[in-house]
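Render this sequence as a predicted structure.
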Amino acid sequence: MAVQKRRQSSARRDSRRAQWMASVKQPQANRCQKCGEPRLPHRVCLACGDYGGKTVIEVAKPEGE
């Protein structure tokens, strides 16, 4: 089993991890084809319940409508 010769300093370790966090991006929101509301890709639209051109879930309408 391999054993390290020298311990890596916390500054060197943390600077390497800082570069990794800079590359993490927030997912881009797409528009729903049915209602036009923003939604995450590959997920059901929370406004109308549509996914892939089909209504997957029934969404309750607010009482004002």
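Summary. The radius of gyration is 23 Å. Strands lie at 30-31, 38-39, 50-51, 54-55.
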